[in-house]
Specification:
The protein is of the alpha/beta class. 37% of the residues lie in helices and 23% in strands. The protein has 13 helices and 16 strands. Helix 9 runs antiparallel to helix 10. The protein is globular, with a radius of gyration of 25 Å.
Length: 374
Amino acid sequence: MPVSANEAIPLIKKSQEILLIIPQKPTDDILSSAFALAKYLEKHNKKSYFFYNDTFPEKLSFLKKPEKILKNLNGSRDFVLMFKTKYNKILNVHSENMGEHFEVRVTPEKGSIDPRDFSFMPADFKYDLLITLGTPSLESLQEIYHENTDLFFEVPKLNIDNKSSNENYGQANVIDVTASSISEICTGLIIEHDETKIDQEIAQALLTGIISATESFQMATTTPRAMITAARLMKYKANQSTVIRYLYKTKSFSFLKLWGRVMAHLEWDDELKMAWALIDSDDFGESGANHKDIPYILEEIQKNFFEGQVFAIFYNEKSGETSAQLYFVDKSKAKQIAKEYDVESTENIIKISFDSKKLVTAEKDFLNKIENLD
């Protein structure tokens, strides 16, 4: 483990309410490690909260999800009305929601309250530690960071990552660029902290992350340490065959054939940070796949383009019209494009139907619009 793990462990030990934060569209590795950490913290009688406002991938359905999943960070901090009562005690406090305003009535023991004896201030945040996983910078968290900057500045942060681009923004930064996965780092941190709390559920989640990040130990970046870590987790009855069955065997042969055709047609624009492909009715017909597979193929493309900001597949519907399904890392750009085409955006995802029935015309039209975004 990195030397910085020595700084991380005291942070975990002294914290009681811990918020786990992951990037938008996290990898299976990041999600799995977050599941494991949440369960591990609970076994240490700590309250852990997991911020995640998206749907979980079906292929991770065999893992137990954290109990406290937050869709937003509302209510993270109280505000305090304070009265000095040395010379005038408070007899009663009554509050009422008046629709467009909230009223608090205070009854003093004597006469009226001196304004100098009254103050209004924010309390401490309910969380005493933030743990970020696979997050190179706070800015990369986008909305959650920009809407809660005080939280990120005032609460201590434990930053866990395996990317050299990480900005080391935490009070403790467990950054190991030699690790093949976030789950490998988390396994080492847990073992260093208290290995006795590892159970089959925690081990299974961590093994899932390692297998996913290494493509079942087939990637060139897989290290001997990753293999040793996986073997250690299997001693806790983590089941490798179960992980592989859910991660890889759930993909149908028709899906894999369509994915191969998409990859064969894939284009990349370094300036736009966009990856896209055009697939026609023959691609669907010969692969045996259908349009419902496209969102999942977009997920697979994202895994191969870590720098990508926009991912798109243009295709012909059965009706003959041309459509595109797109994923934007930046939600604001998704909204801009949705407005341009007068369609709705669902979080980062939009679907566009084009007037033209030609794929190349639709492609050209879209590229022209995205190049001219602010």
